[in-house]
Structures are given as structure tokens and as C-alpha cells.
Amino acid sequence: MGFCGGSSHSGSSGAGGSVSTAGCTFEEDSEPNQCEYSQGEDDDFDWELIRSYLMPDLPHGSYLMVNSSQHTPGQKAHLLFQALSENDTHCLQFSYFMFSRDGHSPGTLSAYVWVTGGLVGSAVWNASGSHGRQWHQAELAVSLFWPSEYQVLFEAVVSSERRGYLGLDDILLLNYPCSKAPHFSRLGDVEVNAGQNATFQCVAAGKAAEAERFLMQRQNGEVVPAASVKHISHRRFLATFQLDTVSKAEQDLYRCVTQSARGAGVSNFAELIVKEPPTPIAPPQLLRAGSTYLIIQLNTNSIIGDGPIVRKEIEYRMTSGPWSEVHAVNMQTYKLWHLDPDTEYEISVLLTRPGDGGTGKPGPPLISRTKCAEPMRAPKGLAFSEIQSRQLTLQWEPLGYNLTRCHTYTMSLCYRYFVGSGHNQTFQECVKMERNANRYTIKNLLPYKNIHVKLILSNPEGRKEGKEVIFQTDEDVPGGIASESLTFTPLEDMIFLKWEEPVEPNGLITQYEISYQSIESSDPAVNVPGPRRTVSKLRNETYHVFSNLHPGTTYLFSVRARTGKGFGQTALTEITTNISAPTFDYGDMPSPLSESESTITVLLRPAQGRGAPISTYQVIVEEDRPKKLKRELGGQECFPVPLTFDDAMSRGSVHYFGAELPASSLTEAKPFTVGDNQTYSGYWNPPLEPKKAYLIYFQAMSNHKGETRLNCVRIARKAACKESKRPLEVSQHSEEMGLILGICAGGLIILIILLGAIIVAIRKG
Fold first, then answer.
1. pTM for this one?
2. 39 and 46 in contact (C-beta within 8 Å)?
3. 183-275: what fold?
4. Rounded CA separation 447/464 (Å)
């Protein structure tokens, strides 16, 4: 709290002999109960209470002072006068002192009227600069009464020059009107709709200075200048303030202020109430629709904005039209008459509250369409304009609105026909026609078929079907022969092929054409692809035997049927002939190259593959027993099961495999010795027994895709040693025996000489 005391300088007492009800003179002998003030808490420094009697730059007396030279520029000192809540007209009077010896500004002194519970806002009065070495008096005419409460806050702000003094004294609350500031009449609240202009009219009574400024202060501190000031009489005037196109953001508390050097007039705070025009949240609800009317429910229980609602209206228009109409509504349901059938309308609800601009935006629209009327009848005049084997072109009368009775309609052409020879299945389809079409071509039909056609006209309210008309398509080329109907029997050099008539002959079959060509072969001697050959068959011949083909060769067969319109689609299949057994280039059984008691050397010649290359060669040795049936060259049975010498001995077999040779090892004729005691691919070739006779066979094997073919030929016979040899064999044997006897005789001579030498040596010894 501040100090109390009386004032002793000029102008400190009230005018007209009235006394103040409260105040601060800051004199030592002043009444303490009449002065209540407090230093600010959020400022930078405090006001200083001084008692100046002899200081040259300061006036005489006791008062509050700020020495600018002792503080930093921009620093503030706050003084808060006691809270006031008056019942009648009153005036707050104060004296101030602002002086600097060199004329510089000591700072700025401002007064704020702070309504309890609100914001401080903007200053209602202020002064700055140096005003000479004397006191000045100002008044605050605050038109705020009980139960409202306010306080006056004095603020001193140090200037940038930091020279001089600011003084404050004789803060007095007077119980009569101010003479230097006008008093405002009570300012009432203003309510407007959003988007409108808000106008405050402030009426003031009293004497206004020529330089009086009229302002409107917002609670947050914003300031609005007066739009106009009109003098009603010499002591009454009207100030008008206007806020343009207000919104919810401008809703706040506002007050009127007059400002001059002598003081300020301050009105009460009035509220600017901004109401939002109402708008329905939900669109109207459709209750019933007819061909020329719509019954709707307004659905205005939930709104956005403010009430009260004083008027309801329906706004409707065609969705595609430029016009709109507004109907006033006094019930929750409404029926729109005289509408066009099958037309889409956009219907919204308008709500209005009191005041200008009280009509809100149209609510969410209901988009609804009137119903259609049932079509008059189905289109007539269905006829053909062109008939082909697989398509049918039809036409009918054009459609008009008097027939469809609806802007939205569907014109469908439906057709059906039997499929299959037994007429047990039906294909049917409905095609939607384009708008205003009266001609259509049905495609992908079957030849020689009765096509049942009818027209259907429909809209949302009903449908009309025309009478069914039958048309027949023309014949066409036959359908393709089913690939699964092709059956065949392949042999080595011929193929038996059979097929069935097309499922869809599409007329009379006159001919079958079969073409074939070799496309792949495992026999390198066959040239692929080969020439293409063609065979024609009569309509009742559905099979053919193809001869003179290459073994192991794949042929591509194509079969197609023909009618008077031409050939149909081709059925394709690939057939591979069987491979044949290899062939040998041996004439009569050849003579062996050489022979001994346990071996025989023969000449092996490469075989010729037929349909598949040679995969393996085999040499088979068979014991030639007297009771065994002799095998003829080229006509004997071959040896499909491999049998080693050991297996043959254990099984008592008369033959065994003496060697197995890969095809790559025999690209040309080569000699081979049977009985050379070697092993070939796991088969032992043991020496032959001299006392036994043997037959030597040469076997070739071809293997292709799991199919195996064998051929064998007897290439030699070795007789037992006790049998007479052929002349060539006898002469060869005599030469061998002579050589052996000569060697034996020479050995005996050498032995006799050695024995004689030994005897002579013994005797001499």
C-alpha cells in the first residue's frame, strides 16, 4: 500500500467546494483511510515518494516521482489506484508533472482503466514530452457502475533520452461529473449475424475539446477509429463505430473512449455478439416420388449456427437447369408439384434467424429424380436388312418420348438359338442398345440356325416385350475336326490314321483333305523338314493308310473338311513312326582273318541305324553243339538279354557276351579277336576251348525314347581241333608244326653238345 497525506500545491482541491470521497494527496498530514494504492508487481521499478522543498528542478510538496536518469530506456513503473465500484456519476482527477531542464522528454505517462476480471487493454489517456516546470490536471470520466468494479493503473515509461522527471499527485475520486472529459451513456450489446456490419453508437454528455479523439477499444487492446461523430446539441454528441463483415473471430467486449490532453471519457464494456445464420446439418428426406411430384421432409432438427429460426424455405432446381425456385414452408413436410417426369432435382432447405443476413447457406442438397411412366408399347417393325452365315442385321422403328415416356429407358434386343445336334442346349443373350439406335448386327452366330429375336423396351416403371420373330442364318464353311477324334496306329514305315466328322458340319461335307510332312527324325539320314504331301478323301471316307514313311520320324498331319463354302479349320496332330532294327553290310559269312586253338580274329563292320542311331555293339559267342538247331545267317533269333561268361556257366547256357562296344568305337570296319582274354565294358572275352566248336555272332542295338530294336548276324565259325581244317587252315597248321619240330630238333642238338662238353671236362679234371 502507498502512503497517505494532504496536498499543498495549486489545483489539488476539487472544484465548486465539493470534497473527494477518496484519493491520495501524498501529504504527511493526509487521512490514511482515504488513500489506497499499490506499486505494480510486473513492472521494472517503483514510483518514488518524495518530499521536495528546496530542490531547484522539482516543484514544492509531497508526491510520487520517477527520475528517468536513474533507469534504462523503456523500463516501466506501475501504480495501481484502489478498486472502485460507484453507484453514480463520478470523476477521477489527478495531477501530473513532466519536466526536463533541456527540453528532452523524460518519458510517457499513461492511464489504464482495468475492469476487474478482464484484460488491462489499451491506455485510455497518455502524455509524453516535457510540459514545463508546473503541474497539470487531467480527468477520467469512467461510466462504469456497481456491481462492476475497476481500477486505474498509472504507467511511467522511461524515454530514450533518460532526462527529466515524471510526477503524479492528487489522485482524487470526485462525486460530480468531470468538467474536462465527457461522460458516456450506457453502451448496450450489439448482436449481428455473421457477414454483416456491426455498428456501435456511443452517446456522450459534457464538454468535448476540439482535439478530442473518439476511439473504440477492444478488450484485447485493438483500437477502432470512429466512423463519424455527430453533435446532437452543444453538450451532447453521438459517435458511431462500424466493424465491417464481422465473423465469430470479432466477437468480444468493446468500449468507447474519448482522448484529449485534459483527460479521457471511458464507457462500459459492451459485447459484440456474432450469430451464425443457421444451416441444416442433414439434407431433406424423400418421403415419396411420383412422375410429376416429390414429397419431402425438411429434416431440420439438427442445425449448424444459431437460432431462433423464424422462417423455413425450400429451394429446388433441375440438376442440369439454370433456374431455381424458393417456396416458403410452414410444415415439416412439403410436396413439390408440376415436376417433369424422369428429371433429377436438387432440393435444399434454407433457414432464417432474426436480423439482416439471418438466412444461412442452403443445407446439404437432396438429389432425387421423379419417376418414369410405363412405356406405351414395345417397338414395332422388326425385320432383317441383311442375312449372312454368322451374322444377322436387323432394324426397327425409331423410338420417341411419346413411346418411352421416360428420358431414362433401356432398349434391349434378345435372341436365342439351339446349339448341338440334339437341340438340348440353348444359347441366349440380351444386348442393350445405344440411345436412339434402330439398327443392330448380331455377330458370332452359327450357320444354318434358326435365330429367335424379340425387342424389349423398359424403364424404371415397367417394360414392354415385342413379339418374337424367327430368322435363319446362311450356311458356312464347316467347323474344325476335333483333335481328340484323331486316332492313329504307327508302324515302322506306315501310319494308319482315322478321324471323325466335324461337330458342326455347317452344311454338306464334300471332301476331306489330309496333309502331312516330316518335321523331326532321330535318323540323321532323313532330311527334315521334308516335302509336304496331300491326300484327298471322299465325304464317307474318314481313314487312310500312309506308307513309304521313314522309321523313327515325326510327321505333322493336318486334317480339314470342306463344304460348298470352302474348307474349315484344320486339326493338327504329330505322329512318330516306330524305329527299325539296324542293318548289316554282310553278304555270306566272311572268312576269319586268323585263327588259333583258343582265338579267332574276325572283321567287325558298322551297322546302319534305321530311325535311330546305333547305341551299342555286342559280340556273342555260342557253343556249336551237334544236336543244336543251326541258325541261318540273317534269320536267326538275336540275344536281347546280356549274359556274361560266368553267368552262362552257372546257368548252363550255350552262349555268352564276349564284348560290348560303344557305337563311337566302331565308325569303320575293324578286326576283333574272340578269346583274347580281355574285358570289354564289363564282359570277359575268355580263351576258346580247342576241343569245342563255336559260332560267333555280331549284334547291333538301337534305343530311342524307350524303344529298343536289335539285329544280329553270324560272322564266323570256329571248328574244334580234331576236325579237318580247310586247305588254308591245314597248310597254316603244317607250317606251325614244322616250325615247332625244327625248334625241338635244334634244342636237342644244343643239349647233346653241352652234355659232351661236360663229360670231356670231367675226364680232364
1. 0.51
2. yes
3. Immunoglobulin-like (2.60.40)
4. 30
| Secondary structure class of 260 (helix, strand, coil) | strand
Which whole number is the average pLDDT over 317-334? 91
Q: Rounded to 5, what percent of the chain is helix, strand, coil?
A: 10, 45, 45
Rounded mean pLDDT, 285-302: 92
What's the rounded Cα separation, in Å, for the pair 724 and 386? 100
The CATH label, of 2.60.120.200, 3.30.499.10, 2.40.110.20, 3.40.50.410, for the domain at 23-174 is 2.60.120.200
- Grid coordinates representing 581 are 532294327
Q: Which of 656, 680, 686, 687 is nearest to 666 (CA)?
A: 680
What residue ranges do the domains of the chain occupy? 23-174, 183-275, 279-370, 383-473, 483-577, 583-625+640-718
pLDDT, one tens digit per residue, over 660-678 is: 999 889 989 899 999 999 9
Domain 279-370 CATH (choose: 2.60.40.10, 3.90.1110.10, 2.30.110.10, 2.40.160.50): 2.60.40.10
User: Strand (E) positions, 276-377?
Assistant: 279-280, 285-289, 294-297, 303-304, 311-318, 325-329, 333-336, 344-352, 366-369
Q: With left for phi above 0 and alpha for psi between -120 and 50, is residue 390 left, alpha or beta?
A: alpha
Distance, in Å, from the CA atom of 468 to the CA atom of 682, rounded to the nearest integer, reads 85
Top-tier CATH class for 383-473: mainly beta
Name 576's Cβ contacts closer than 8 Å, sequence gap at least 6: 490, 520, 552, 553, 554, 555
pLDDT band at 244 (very low <50, low <70, confident <90, very high): very high
Measure the CA–CA gap between 676 and 680, rounded to whole angstroms: 11
Which neighbouring-strand residues pair with 387? 392
For residues 396 and 488, what is the distance between their CA atoms, to the nearest angstrom?
A: 54
